[in-house]
């Protein structure tokens, strides 16, 4: 399940860190044993297919399931290999759970293995989102559907607000420069209603200049790795052509900038989908985000829902493939290099700046979108009640969204 929990977590040095257990109190981890003869790559794909279908609980929980099942119980992957994948996921753009799934496939069968595990893990949520989008596009004009999302929209805003707060705290800690970046991007987003990708890339490059300016030249792989940053800018200058081409280019560059958490993509999506291309209204966009929250899998699967509304089943496929392509490349291209150079100062500085900017944009998007979602006393009450409950209790987002939908039906 997509969650408001940030996909960018503190670097871990032991599996127990996923569960918040101190190392000295954690139970011992069984030494991984070789997989049984019958547990080949097909068994790995079956596992990720099941996980993609029933993997509710958010990115941290889903990665915890992988650790428990693949490392501790089955011994299909070595402990350090798994932790390397988590560290890679923390650094490269993209949702953490999907990145770790691709990493496992990459270790087993290289680039094709990563693609296969990605398909198995993401496929179920894509099919669910596409099916819901088909129903939504047909019945969205009905009063019952409008009433349903009358309650869902303010609840989604509360979920995004909690995500922004957690991401800000987790990313910026006590770094005043990161807080300054977040504040500037927040102000720009909240005031103008626009979230330019240049701010995110620029923030990453700024911290490289401040903290890790290269002496003469980048490390051998660094030149290629840091080319990922300008890539979205270059893509943005290409001709848009038809609708499918526009969808593909937009989601391709957006997927390269999902720093911080799955929900950090919301400002970038809103900027392109609502403001720039006018594919959806703000209300439809909030409905799309809600669908990403209540289905299993990463919240960026929202791209499939948006693609379907814009260009039918083909649009859903194009948008989903495009948004996951840079995420996939971020695993298979720098994967081995990253394991050897995970402490590269330029990479760490860029990620810190970009994630701080993404967190600020997410907080600013809360202000912009709330104007659309919270319009009267009932929606205000739903937003505040959801905010209070999520602040106090760990309630799975699907329950929150479905309950809010029921309230919408009763109140509207």
UniProtKB/TrEMBL annotation:
**Keywords for the protein's UniProt record, in alphabetical order:** Cell membrane, Membrane, Transmembrane, Transmembrane helix
Family listed: Belongs to the chromate ion transporter (CHR) (TC 2.A.51) family.
**Topology within the bilayer:** Multi-pass membrane protein
Localized where?
Cell membrane
Membrane spanning stretches: 111-136, 148-168, 197-216, 256-273, 285-310, 316-337, 349-369
Asked if the record carries the keyword Cytoplasm, the reply is no
Q: What GO MF terms are annotated? A: chromate transmembrane transporter activity
Name by which UniProt lists this protein: Chromate efflux transporter
Q: Which organism is it from?
A: Streptomyces kaniharaensis
In terms of InterPro entries, this protein maps to: Chr_Tranpt_l_chain (IPR014047), CHR_Transporter (IPR052518), Chromate_transpt (IPR003370)
